[in-house]
Amino acid sequence: MRHRLLLAVTALYLLAVAWITLNPFPGDPKRNTLLEGLLAAFAATPLLAWIDYDVVEFTANILMFVPMGLLLALLFGPGRRWLAVSLGIAATLTIEFVQLFEPARVSDARDIVANSLGAIIGVAVVVVAGGRRSRLDATPSRSS
Question: Which of 33, 102, 104, 121 has an alpha carbon within 20 to 30 A of 3's alpha carbon?
Answer without folding.
Answer: 121
